[in-house]
Amino acid sequence: MKRFKGVFTALVTPFDESDGINESSLRKIIRYSLNNGVSGFYVCGSTGEWPLLTVDERKRVLEIVKDEVKDSALIIVNVGCISTKFSVELAKHAESVGVSAVSSFPPIYYKFSFREIKQYYFDIADSVNVPLIVYYIPSFTNVEMNIDSLLELLEHKNIIGVKFTSMDLFILERLKSLTDKIIFNGFDEVFLAGLSLGADGMIGSTCNFAPEIVVSIYDSFKAGDLKTAYIYQQRLNKMIRDILEFGVIQAIKEILNLAGFNCGNPRKPLRTLTSDKRTKLLSLIKEWDIKLFS
Ligand code: MN9
After folding, report:
1. pTM here?
2. Which residue's alpha carbon is at the smallest distance from atom 7 of ligand 1?
C-alpha cells in the first residue's frame, strides 16, 4: 500500500479524426508525464471521458496504457459503471491486464441507498484480487457521503483508499487520521492544502500539461519547503483559473493539441471550443511558464 503515493496523471483520452481512440497520441501523453516525474496514472476517469466511451473502448485504452507504462509506474483504472455487472466485468479485465488498483465512483442515476452503494463497492472488491479505491466526487455524482459512510466502505480489507475529489478537506483529514488507508487529493487547486492535512498524493488532470509543476508541489512539500510548494501551487492555480471557463477537458485537449500531441476534441455532447474561445485561451496561455511550451 505504501506504493500509492505521489502524483498521478488523470489521463485524457485522445481521439483521432474518425472519433476512435488515438493510440499514438495516448502513448505520447503518457511518455510526457513519465519523463516529468509522475508516479502513476488514473485511466478513464472524469478527465478521460469515461461516460462517453464504450466498455470495449475502456478496455482498449487500458491495454494501451499498460503496454506503454509496463511496470515503470502505477496504474489505477476507473471501472465504474452504473450496473455492478459491467463494473465487475471491467474490474476483471483490468486485473487480467495487470493494474495496481481499480477504482469506481458510486452508482448514479437512480437514487441508490447507501446500503446499495456499499454492496456495489463490496461486490467489486470481492470480485478481484487487486485493491479498490473509492472515487468520491459528489459534484459530478450528486452522491454525498459523510465521514461515517466513507469509513464504513474503508472497512473492507480490499478497499484501500479514496480518490477524494471534494473541497471539503475536513473529511479528507478525518479519513486520514482515523484510518491507515490511502487518500488521494482530487482537486488540483487544493493539492498543497490536501497534502498538509495528510493526503498521500494526488490524481489530477493538470498533470497532462504541467506535470513538472504538480510534481514540484509534492517534492517541495516532502522536503519541508512549504514556501516553494506554495509558489508552485500559486502557479498551478493561475493556470487552473484560466482554463476553468472553457471546460477543463476542452481546454486541456486544446493545450495538448497546440503542443503537437494531436489528441483531437472531446467527444459529443461535450462541445468543441469555438474559434473565439480558442483565441482567448491562446492569449491566456501565452503567459504560462511551463515546460510544454518552452
Ligand atoms: O480527476 C479532476 N477532476 C475533475 C481530477 O475533472 C472533476 C481534477 O484534476 C480537476 O480537473 C482539476 C480542475 O478543477 O482540479
Report:
1. 0.98
2. 46
